[in-house]
Amino acid sequence: MGKMMIKWSFSILIIILTTVVAGAPAMVKGKGVHENAYATMMYMGTPRDYEFYIATRVMLRSLSKLGVKADLVVIASLDVPLHWVQTLEQEDGAKVVRVENLNNPYKGQSNFNWRFKLTLNKLYAWSLTDYERVVMLDSDNLFLQKTDELFQCGQFCAVFINPCIFHTGLFVLQPSEIVFKDMLHQLKVGMDNPDGADQGFIGRYFPDLLDQPMFHPSLNGTKLQGNYRLPLGYQMDASYYYLRLHWSVPCGPNSVITFPGAPWLKPWYWWSWPVLPLGIQWHEQRRQTLGYNAEIPLVMIQTVLYLGIIIMTRVARPSLSKLCYRREDTKSIFLIRTGLKLIAIWSILAAYILPFFLIPRTVHPLIGWGLYLLGSFALSCIALNAFLLPMLPVLVPWLGILGALLVMAYPWYSDGVVRALTVFAYAFCASPVAWTALVKIMSCLHVSIEREGFLPRLSESAVPAGFNKLY
After folding, report:
1. Secondary structure of residue 29 in the 3-state scheme
2. Is 290 within 8 Å of 296 (Cβ atoms)?
3. Where are the domains of the chain?
4. What is the predicted pLDDT for the residue at 451?
């Protein structure tokens, strides 16, 4: 009897230990490793979903590289692709919280911008009650140093980059189920929202933040209570930099750069630099963290294709001028000549437009601009060889773009005003050259189309048999 009791006791002990061990990972996953978290959100519904996915990954990797002592959380809507979620969890070390998109009741407003339709998902940050404090982030933040002292701030803290309106690209909050449910109630009753997005809603929900004291972290790490304004150094607007071409933020640590403004000039797009000088700094952070493995294969394919085009046009020298027609109808010849002129002009324009849209949008700017110049040169070779045009006038736009890039990328301007005036002066001086090149192209095109080798004159004698064909 005693032996049987011992066996039962041993079996029960094994079952208890097995249950505890099996349940441990689930507890860690639910509660998180740390008591605080950096959080961001992802949702689908805009043409730039992939770019924001890349931006989110770079930001998460940069936070990990800084050694922050907090969990990384991504609030992802249910329509975010599963393989993106798995990548965020397995490769970037993030905890992904799947949520349903919050209905935006303000989408009928006259000033509503549809790219902000799902930004109210940011309110889910208040539902992360497993954490003491959460720093909620937009994906266009560039961290220069660790900011874990923000977890000492109170129930709500944000930065005023606008004199009267705080910015919701970075703010600190204390998660609360009560606050979260009240926010959802305010959405239902239609609380006033000037822009219909998260910025306007949260600004109306915390209307007195401007009157609150400035946040200063305590030396002993004590968490503060109440609402606070954050120093500008936690949300350094990139537009401040472009005026002086260096940072001049007197209050607080210069910790985080934010890039509000035009969505097509976000720093992860290759064409944003050197138009906006800070873009290269974001890409340097990506190079050190995520890399460019996703874009390199397509870049290599395009490079080989463009080099092949250049070689073929130089070796074979195809010429559409050998597309000869023998017609007695003067009207038909006029239409053919006009059509060929239009084709020639459009082919030159396409040579400078098409490569821009083929380049992966999130590739490094140096690779992007290099591939663009190679592609436009290769396609220009087709036009100038097909219509027997002089090389220099056709390549004047190519040289002008290269010169503009060098002028904008020049690193020793004293300030942004001098840089802008220099770019304007360059454009002013380059305009007559571009016009002269266009006139030269039209003149040469006219001669090329009218001359004997292209369309034989009607007064000529009959051409040998077999001449009227494509060769």
Report:
1. helix
2. no
3. 30-289, 296-450
4. 58
Separation of first and last alpha carbons in the chain:
104
Identify the helix (H) or strand (E) that includes residue 338: helix 330-358
Residues 390-429 as b/e (b if ≥16 CB within 10 A, e otherwise) read: eeebbbbbbebbeebbebbeeeebeebeebeeebeebeee
* Residue 136 CB partners (closer than 8 Å, separation 6+): 39, 40, 122, 125, 168, 170, 171, 172, 173
Per-residue pLDDT band at 22 (split at 50, 70, 90): very low
Indicate the pLDDT class of residue 1, thresholds 50, 70 and 90: very low
Report yes or no on whether pTM surpasses 0.85.
Answer: no
141-143 vs 256-258, strand pairing mode: antiparallel
User: With contact defined as beta carbons under 8 Å apart, do 405 and 369 qualify?
Assistant: yes
Q: Rounded to whole angstroms, how far apart are CA atoms 263 and 52?
A: 11
DSSP per residue, 253-311: ---EEE--S-GGG-TTSTTHHHHSTTHHHHHHHHHHHT-STTTHHHHHHHHHHHHHHHH
Q: In CATH terms, is domain 30-289 a member of 3.90.550.10?
A: yes
What are the pLDDT digits (tens) for 182-240? 999 999 998 999 898 999 999 999 999 999 999 999 888 889 999 999 999 999 999 88
Cα 287 from Cα 304, distance rounded (Å): 23
Alpha-carbon distance 12 to 18, whole Å?
Answer: 10
Strands 95-99 and 227-230: unpaired
Per-residue tokens: 44: 């689908």
pLDDT (tens digit, 9 = 90+) per residue, 122-173?
999 999 999 999 999 999 999 999 999 999 999 999 999 888 899 999 999 9
